[in-house]
TrEMBL record:
It comes from Schizosaccharomyces octosporus (strain yFS286) (Fission yeast). This is STE/STE20/PAKA protein kinase Shk2. Belongs to the protein kinase superfamily. STE Ser/Thr protein kinase family. STE20 subfamily. One of its GO terms (molecular function) is metal ion binding. Residues 24-124 form the PH domain. CDD domains: PH_Cla4_Ste20, STKc_PAK.
């Protein structure tokens, strides 16, 4: 059905159409609704549907046409409202003769947040459109003096400021053009740009792509020394740009190849599926071949759903928990604090953290299996405990975890200067967790302060297992580029085969975060950071003279670019620096009640 919304012709599918259309209803349900301008009118019960670009209000779930449709691009803000208990407000952009806001009330807190999250996520995606009518207006050339002419002003400024990266782009265009191709095609998600004063901090940007299988550097490693964790033949990490260029070119070729034959895409995370999930799923395709990562087959959405359905509880957990407030937002979903209802003391302590994931909006659904599998199997005092998982109406996945009531290490680093004894305690506990994973041939691949959580007893635990990979054995190596750029080991960036020691590099970067508040190159964009890590190798501390010899030695053991000489987690646990660790109680003063505050949503 075509209708006119504020002068614009829009196609509004009927409710029946919506239900059957692939792009149809994202979320629907009964709500109580009120237009803000008609405060004197009572709340009315309506059927609300959210599609990818609009919200429609129906008299009932049987109605065929909507009473009101609002395009998501016309929504200015989604916010909590205090008009009723579980209520949110859609503030609309101001148009004449239109209500300025709608108040929507639902039956529980979780529902409220999920509606808000689903709407907000789609408002964002509706705001970004492709370029319109692009024109090629910039023509850069070189004049008779060898100088660039025709550069845009911003580029001239960059060059005059001596930006190595800008010069690299001009002088080595191939490598940098290929690098930027990764950023557009293969950045899986970027999240949480946080402003601190004038500096924009990229809190956590995940880059992953697949599958650089036979990079020249990786091929040369086939003949290299293969101790348990070594991945390179070279003892020097003065990576020449050509090596990086070659690796990037090679990756480009492989990506081209992979688009030609879908089977050539590697999905190495799926090796985790040799665990309990797959046992229950007889029809799961073989996902791993020890010698050839290219033979991995991607699970379809349906298969992932089948595995989830057969492995976890498909019932409504709202009888077990009452959601209190949102703790934070991750790339795959929101994390909530919830109280366990009185008669379910199976969950100790009364409070749990619930990660709520909208299954259908995940681009990499198999990573959800990763996360649950590793958490479920990894009982250890330094790994956040998995308690349960629920699948609600085949749409929402709830992962119930132990609640870490003092937030993440990032929160602490941003508020306090840690002394070396405290750094040693955090390293010791994180190392124990890493060793536990490595002993089971699991690589975490995303160790950083955001993924180290703390509780008020001063316990320190690793979380976020979405990017884990399992090695078939200690000598097995992976090649997929996964992780958060600033914390990524050079061998991952250079697409060499890598093993568990990539987590040790990331631990080293996390130590720099503890000493300097942020990882090296955080001021740079992620692509440049990758380039710098590969080019520079071991980063230098800003003020090494302020750091003790033991800590420097520990740090060097983590940040050795030659993986043969980089320590294992077990070796680090014997390092003299860790003997200086303060007692966990000494961390408690840092962990005041104000560290974790409910966010205003
Ligand atoms: N068990 C927990 N206890 C307390 N807070 C938690 C817990 N798990 C996560 N959080 C908080 O919730 C927020 C989001 O966590 P999440 O793990 O979803 O984030 P992410 O790692 O950024 O995203 P993703 O895993 O989707 O890539 C973080 O700020 C984290 O501090």
């Amino acid at each position: 059905m075509l209708i006119t919304v504020r002068g614009e012709v829009v196609e509004i599918p009927s409710l029946a159409d919506l239900k059957h259309s692939a792009k149809g209803v994202v979320r629907e349900g009964w709500v109580m609704l009120k237009e803000e301008k008609t405060k004197y009118l009572p709340w009315t019960k309506k059927w609300l549907t959210l599609s990818h670009n609009s919200i429609s209000i129906y008299k009932s779930n049987k109605s065929d046409s909507a009473q009101l449709t609002i395009l998501l691009k016309d929504i200015e803000k989604v916010e909590r409202s205090k008009s009723r208990t579980f209520c949110f407000r859609l503030k609309l952009k101001i148009y004449q003769s239109t209500s300025q806001a709608l108040e929507i009330s639902v039956s529980n807190n979780m529902d409220c947040y999920e509606w808000m999250d689903s709407i907000s996520a789609r408002i964002l995606s509706n705001k970004v459109s492709g370029p319109m009518d692009p024109k090629h207006e910039i023509h850069v050339g070189i004049d008779s003096n060898g100088k660039y002419v025709g550069l845009p002003k911003e580029w001239s400024i960059l060059l005059n400021n001596g930006s190595v990266y800008a010069k690299d782009i001009l002088e080595k265009p191939k490598s940098t053009i290929q690098a930027s191709n990764h950023s557009s095609e293969e950045f899986c998600h970027q999240r949480d740009y946080i402003k601190f004063g004038s500096q924009i901090k990229l809190k956590a940007s995940i880059i992953r792509y697949s599958p650089p299988v036979f990079s020249p550097s990786a091929m040369s490693n086939e003949a290299s020394i293969h101790d348990s964790d070594c991945t390179t033949t070279s003892s020097s990490y003065d990576v020449d740009e050509d090596q990086l260029t070659l690796a990037l070119q090679n990756d480009k070729k492989i990506n081209k190849r992979s688009s030609e034959t879908s089977h050539s895409r590697s999905f190495d995370d799926l090796s985790l599926m040799d665990s309990s999930f797959c046992e229950k799923q007889q029809s799961t395709p073989s996902v791993h071949n020890k010698n050839d990562e290219t033979s991995n087959v991607k699970l379809t959405e349906k298969q992932v759903m089948e595995i989830l359905k057969s492995s976890i509880i498909s019932k409504d957990p709202s009888t077990l928990f009452s959601v209190k407030h949102k703790l934070g937002q991750g790339a795959s979903g929101s994390v909530y604090l919830a109280k366990v209802k009185a008669d379910h003391q199976f969950y100790k302590n009364g409070l749990v953290a619930i990660k709520s994931i909208d299954f259908h909006s995940q681009s990499r659904k198999e990573l959800l299996l990763n996360e649950i599998t590793v958490m479920r199997e990894s009982f250890h005092p330094n790994i956040v405990s998995f308690l349960d998982a629920f699948l609600i109406k085949e749409r929402h996945l709830w992962v119930v975890m132990e609640y870490m009531d003092a937030g993440s290490l990032t929160d602490i680093i941003q508020r306090h200067k840690l002394n070396e004894e405290q750094v040693a305690r955090i390293c010791l506990e994180t190392c124990k967790g890493i060793q536990h994973l490595h002993a089971r041939n699991v690589i975490h691949r995303d160790i950083k302060s955001d993924n180290v959580l703390i509780n008020k007893e001063g316990q320190i635990k690793i979380t976020d297992f979405g990017f884990c990979a399992r090695l078939m054995d200690r000598s097995h190596k992976r090649v997929t580029m996964v992780g958060t750029p600033y914390w990524m080991a050079p061998e991952i960036i250079k697409q060499q085969k890598y093993g568990t020691k990539v987590d040790i590099w990331s631990l080293g970067i996390m130590i720099i975060e503890m000493l300097e508040n942020e990882p090296p190159y955080l001021g740079e964009d992620p692509m440049k950071a990758l380039y710098m890590i590969a080019k520079t190798g071991t980063p230098s501390l800003k003020k090494p003279e302020l750091v003790s010899k033991e800590l420097l030695s520990f740090l060097n053991s983590c940040l050795n670019t030659d993986t043969v000489f980089r320590a294992t987690a077990a070796e680090l646990l014997n390092h003299s620096f860790l003997r200086r660790a303060c007692s966990p109680k000494t961390l408690i003063p840092f962990i005041s009640a104000d560290v974790v505050k409910p966010r205003n949503h």
